[in-house]
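Sanity check. The docking grid for adenosine-5'-diphosphate depends on where the pocket ends up, so I'm generating a full predicted complex first rather than guessing from homology. Inputs follow.
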Amino acid sequence: MNIIFLGPPGSGKGTHAQRVSEDMGIPRISTGDMLREQMKNGTPLGREAQAFVEAGELVPDGLVIKMLQERLAQPDCAHGVIFDGFPRTLPQAEALAQIADIDVVVNMEIPDEVIVERMQGRRVCPACGHTTHVEQLGDSQSCPKCGQGLTIRKDDLPETVLQRLRVYHEQTQPLIAHYQALGLLRSADSSGAVETTRANVRAALA
Ligand code: ADP
Ligand code: ZN
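Predicted complex below; grid placement will be based on this.
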């Protein structure tokens, strides 16, 4: 079973893709997490990607496609994967069609205004990569998974969020019509509370 989670930044794709991954016992592949890991480790790919990511731009298709192909060749992907943040452009969708059969695309629907508000509270753990929101943290501002102090992603600064939204509308939104035409698209409203969205995602996959 191969599932794509499609949606703008801040739509909760990562959170819900992770839950579905755990429920179904198939890995989640987040190109954003993979790129941040490469950047943290200062690999050649990470160094090449960094300026794009920090500016809120997309990393060039060739780099991301190659990285994804290598990941998909690993044995844990044999029984399907959850794609989170890939594909993000039509060329990426076409490249993916050559290497995997997609069963369903969950489109996370949320208005831009809600996104901007949400992203201001987003925090990430520099140690384990866990993403969370200040409203879910209570008094402690440390990582609920590993205890490390949380940080704000550079690309979550307000100007960059607006840029990422522009990039989403220009380059990623066309994938909605693309997958709709292929009969694969299911929508899940993700503008409400986490548990409401979780139910919507479940319904979309039922
Ligand atoms: P979000 O969904 O919140 O924007 P991600 O972690 O998925 O966050 O992506 C963060 C950044 O990583 C993107 O803004 C982009 O620069 C880069 N990136 C991630 N996935 C891709 C991709 N498939 N193609 C190009 N760039 C990507
Ligand atoms: Zn952590």
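Relevant for the grid: The first helix runs from residue 13 to 24.
Also worth noting: The two ends are 13 Å apart (CA to CA).
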